[in-house]
Design a protein that fits this description.
The protein is of the alpha/beta class. The chain has four domains: 121 residues, 3-Layer(aba) Sandwich (Rossmann fold); 165 residues, Rossmann fold (3-Layer(aba) Sandwich); 75 residues, Orthogonal Bundle (Helicase, Ruva Protein, domain 3); 39 residues, Arc Repressor Mutant, subunit A. It contains 18 helices and 18 strands. A five-stranded parallel β-sheet has the order 2-1-3-4-5, with helices on both faces. A five-stranded parallel β-sheet has the order 9-12-15-8-16. It has a two-stranded antiparallel ribbon with strand order 6-7. Helix 17 packs across helix 18. The longest helix is centred in the first third of the chain and has 18 residues. The chain is elongated and about 95 Å long. The protein starts with 5 loop residues before the first strand and ends with a helix. It binds adenosine-5'-triphosphate and magnesium ion.
Length: 440
């Protein structure tokens, strides 16, 4: 295996390319050189590149477009921009797009070397390197540093000591239960119980007695008195998971608990007072369920005093690298291995992937790959469905007209059905749009 770092050089001047190539060789780096951005992209797609050095002003497609393209498709490969025309706006723009360094021609060998060092040092912070301690940013075990996660951490902090009901929403695998536990275990009543109840998993006829308890003889089989989850959680937190799956009868009973702060055991005549903070979670759209008469609106408002929405992983891609590092370390340690290394290309693919199963999917993926791989994870080790940017929305069995129809619908939706605006976005005239809409 070649351990040299590969550097892609992009410059329209052959002399410059030649000079750079010689400098790379002198620095012990492995150069790939091209005069065009189109070829550069081709090389990026087919070779494992660790660093890109590009000129900005080139005929045809310029370096700025390459930087832009890389920020979308190869965001983990560091970029050093070199240019002969110093221009503040360009410099600011390329830096914003993700270039790490900016070097003005003419430069000396030492200046080039020091810029490359800086860029590569920056990179090693974000790539798992077993020689360095990787800093994991987390809030009580919840990994994340993206803006939405920071907001979430602030909300947890503000919510934790308050007994108001919390509703946690989010897709499957986003960490709803984890957030519920973080709220409870950081609260002033953390020494009281946290009682998780999977409302969706308990058969309907048992749910009431499980939640509220029963007295001996309340129903066939009730041979002793038994307390329910609510009594068990007294003083602490009850976590009602999958609340969207509760039956109308249970919803009515839950409403009573939230209003009266008391529960009645099955078979009992008198209610008992309980002091329980309710955290519920759902991946269903409760508002839509209310609209369809599947969920009680009054209960929704009782449960939803504080709402915490956990965004899906694809909306906080900044956290992907952090989560990879965290699970890589965790599972490698469990298997008595050194953490795996991920090639830049693999990291780019993992960042571009849509993670429909969210953190749980990422966690399972890293677990599997730690078991299956030895030192470095290469593109071949990644399952093919993860190599497509958004498999969730990309269906290879659809006809062109089906795709067109869906796209038109999405655009119309985004402009509140304004046909003139939609036609403008779609690049067709209103008449064509009308015909296309009439077609089915
Ligand atoms: N931010 C995070 N940092 C670290 N681990 C996380 C994070 N979010 C989720 N996880 C892990 O991902 C897995 C799924 O989390 P959790 O069970 O809390 O999700 P959920 O939203 O309740 O999912 P579901 O809707 O499927 O019940 C767990 O193993 C959890 O530890
Ligand atoms: Mg859950």
């Amino acid at each position: 295996m070649n351990n040299k770092l590969s550097v892609l050089l992009v410059d329209d001047s052959r002399d410059m390319l030649e000079l750079l190539r010689r400098n790379m060789n002198a620095m012990g780096l492995n150069p790939f050189a091209t005069e065009s951005v189109v070829d550069a992209i081709d090389i990026l797609e087919n070779t494992e590149i660790d660093l890109v050095i590009t000129d900005l002003n080139m005929p045809g497609i310029g370096g700025l477009q390459l930087v832009k393209y890389m920020s979308q498709h190869f965001s983990s490969i560091p970029i050093l921009v070199i240019t002969g025309y110093p221009n503040v706006e360009d410099a600011v723009e390329v830096m914003k797009l993700g270039a790490l360094e900016y070097l003005i021609k003419p430069f000396t060998f030492d200046e080039l070397q020091s810029s490359i060092d800086k860029v590569l040092t920056n990179r090693s912070i974000s790539v798992v390197d077993d020689s360095e301690e990787v800093i994991i940013e987390s809030f009580h075990g919840i990994i994340g540093k993206s803006e939405p996660m920071q907001k979430l951490f602030r909300t947890i902090d503000r919510t934790k000591n308050n007994k108001a009901s919390v509703l946690i929403t989010g897709e499957s695998g986003t960490g709803k239960e984890m957030v519920a536990r973080a709220i409870h275990y950081n609260s002033s009543f953390s020494s009281s119980p946290f009682v998780p109840v999977n409302v969706g998993a308990i058969p309907e006829q048992l749910l009431e007695s499980e939640l509220f308890g029963h007295l001996k003889g309340a129903f066939t089989g009730a041979i002793t008195n038994r307390v329910g989850f609510f009594q068990a959680a007294d003083g602490g937190t009850i976590f009602l998971d999958e609340i969207g799956n509760s039956s109308p009868a249970v919803q009515a009973k839950l409403l009573r608990v939230t209003q009266e702060k008391e529960v009645t055991m099955l078979g009992a005549t008198k209610p008992q007072k309980v002091s329980v903070r309710i955290i519920s979670a759902t991946n269903s759209n409760l508002e839509e369920m209310i609209w369809k008469n599947l969920f009680r609106e009054d209960l929704f408002y009782r449960l939803n005093v504080i709402t915490i929405h956990i965004p899906p992983l694809r909306e906080r891609k900044d956290d992907i690298q952090l989560l990879i590092n965290f699970f890589n370390k965790k599972f490698s340690k469990e298997s008595n291995k050194k953490p795996l290394k991920f090639s830049s290309k693999v990291l780019s693919l993992l960042k571009a992937y849509s993670w429909p199963g969210n953190i749980r999917e990422l966690e399972n993926f890293i677990h599997r790959i730690v078991i299956m791989s030895d030192v470095k994870v290469e593109v071949e080790d990644i399952p093919s469905h993860m190599k497509m940017a958004s498999p969730a929305t990309y269906n290879l069995t659809e006809t062109l007209s089906q795709v067109e129809k869906k796209h038109i619908e999405k655009v119309l939706n985004s402009v509140n059905d304004n046909k003139t605006k939609a036609a403008e976005i779609l690049g067709i005239d209103r008449k064509t749009l009308r015909e296309k809409l009439k077609r089915d």
